Amino acid sequence: MGERYIGRFAPSPTGPLHQGSLVAALASWLDARAHGGRWLVRIEDVDLPRCVPGMDVVILGQLEACGLVPDTPPVVQSQRSAIYQAALDQLVAAGLAYPCACSRKDIEIAAARTGRPRERNGELVYPGTCRHGLNGLPARAWRLDVASACADGAVVHWVDRRLGAQTQDVATEVGDFVLRRADGLWAYQLAVVVDDAAQGITHVVRGADLADNTPRQVVLQRALGLVTPIYLHTPLVLGDNGEKLSKQNGARAFDSAAPLDALTAAAAQLGLPGPPPALHASDDPIRAALSHWVTAWRALYNPTRE
């Protein structure tokens, strides 16, 4: 079973891991171990201006303190521009990607003219202004032509192992999304799809806030001729204000000096039982707790159902 499972945890080094990101890390590690598979870590620093120098080392240290050690050395996105460019070149050659001259203000105006000024999850639905040419304007970004990429229709159906059946019409709900940004940086959607394929990722376990990204990634996977992984999106950890706990809203790093306490809280967020009573008598309490939670995870998300 192990050879058919490769999972990953992919933090962005914009700050230390907080309790919410530990939940995602623990879930992905447990799923890999429950399958008898491999667990990888990928440092997603493609958005370099937001990244903090040395934070990747801090994050890896936090994971190690919790007994969550990757099976191979971490991959770093900022070192992989060539493979992202190759993927974009493939899409351009197939007529599935095009340059875009629009600024955000241009998109807002154009979307308002089409009667769709509403933002969706902080994003504007791109109306396809540059799909058929730039009208002499300089290119700023590159976009995927979703309609052309979806020969069998842009409505994506997929099944999440926790959330169940999901559907999204990518063409109308998202539009032609960015592959390379106006500042020259690679977009998250392209980088994550290319990296998951290059690393042979078979299962993706991540926070529920990323579930909305999955249909775009499925469209890209199909356009590039890549295999779609199996997805599981975990519950989000909320702050006192009811919003998702995140670095952007000031979430503090979990206490890596008390890793068992942090792991126990993360396990509870995942619906797992507390550690066994005799845990502290163990020579390695963290290892014993993790082993306990692997068994509980296996019962909750039985790999044989897939």
Automatic annotation (TrEMBL):
Q: What is this protein called?
A: Glutamyl-Q tRNA(Asp) synthetase
E.C. numbers:
6.1.1.-
Source gene?
A: gluQ
Q: Which family does it belong to?
A: Belongs to the class-I aminoacyl-tRNA synthetase family. GluQ subfamily.
**What PANTHER family would the database entry show?**
GLUTAMATE--TRNA LIGASE, GLUTAMYL-Q TRNA(ASP) SYNTHETASE
Identify the SUPFAM superfamilies for this entry.
Nucleotidylyl transferase
Q: Which residues are listed for L-glutamate binding in this entry?
A: R8, F9, A10, P11, S12, E44, Y188, R206
- Enumerate the GO terms in the molecular function aspect: ATP binding; glutamate-tRNA ligase activity; zinc ion binding
A cellular component term from Gene Ontology for this protein is:
cytosol
Q: For the motif 'KMSKS' region, give the residue ranges.
A: 244-248
